[in-house]
Automatic annotation (TrEMBL):
GO terms for biological process: rRNA base methylation. PANTHER family: RIBOSOMAL RNA LARGE SUBUNIT METHYLTRANSFERASE J. The record marks 4 as: Interaction with substrate rRNA. One of its GO terms (molecular function) is RNA binding. The keyword Cell inner membrane does not apply. Monomer. It comes from Aequoribacter fuscus. One of its GO terms (cellular component) is cytosol. SUPFAM superfamilies: S-adenosyl-L-methionine-dependent methyltransferases. The keyword rRNA processing applies. Belongs to the RlmJ family. This is Ribosomal RNA large subunit methyltransferase J. InterPro entries: RlmJ, SAM-dependent_MTases_sf. Keywords: Methyltransferase, RNA-binding, rRNA processing, S-adenosyl-L-methionine, Transferase.
Amino acid sequence: MLSYRHAYHAGNIADLLKHSVLLALLDHMRSKDKGFKYIDTHSGAGAYSLRSEFSEKTAEWQRGIGRHLGSNAQHPLLDKLLSAVQTTDTGVVYPGSPRLAASALRRQDSGACYELHSTDAKLLANNLRSQAAIKLYQSDGLAGLLSQLPTPTRRALVLIDPSYELKTDYQEIPKTVHKALSKMENAVIAIWYPVVDRDLSDAMVKALTAGLSQRVDCFELGERADSEGYGMTSSGMLVINSPWDLAQSMSTLLPELAAQHSLDGEPHYRCDNLVAR
């Protein structure tokens, strides 16, 4: 059993990137009346207390969403994310991707969330207990994704967000994504990845985009320049079948976030179109 628990990292700078992109993609899917299915392959617990022992141990959220709590966000995507954070007398609850998606789903939409870790799967079920439109599976999300496609309405938004504890993820994810696109070529697929070893992440991005004719955009946000001595220095979101206006939104948000979160005085972000359609 893998040991990764996202509770240690919830609300960090990687979540700012991932969830800003996700919110923009959810808005895009809602722009049409026809229903869509949201598929989350690595769901985690769905929501996280930022006063838990996990969050307090790493305090990563303080360098992430914590820098924006109580302030007025200039960018609409950041403002929407801040609005989803629940602040009460007993603490702050940061929403995971399943809860953000659940809040966006309409009557005609549906969801499928996968989580293998037994503890997080139980927490996910509790956090989404009122969301009848979302089915939960304590099983492998990559295999589950392929079983969900094509969706009945031929519209799907997929988030692939593994921990990359297993180095084989860097090879398995491109294989799964290409299989998914062969079953449903218009699926909007967002893949999060860490930048720990630049060569490794670049190789995965190259494998993901190989042979694609769909539009592909790549976004990254980091605290410092690439270095072998600091662990994860940044993270990225690769979006296949990316909406035309996503890059425009991110091109205004990322410079703002990069300047606010830099630890070395230099902004570190990426906003690139890798495959044009």
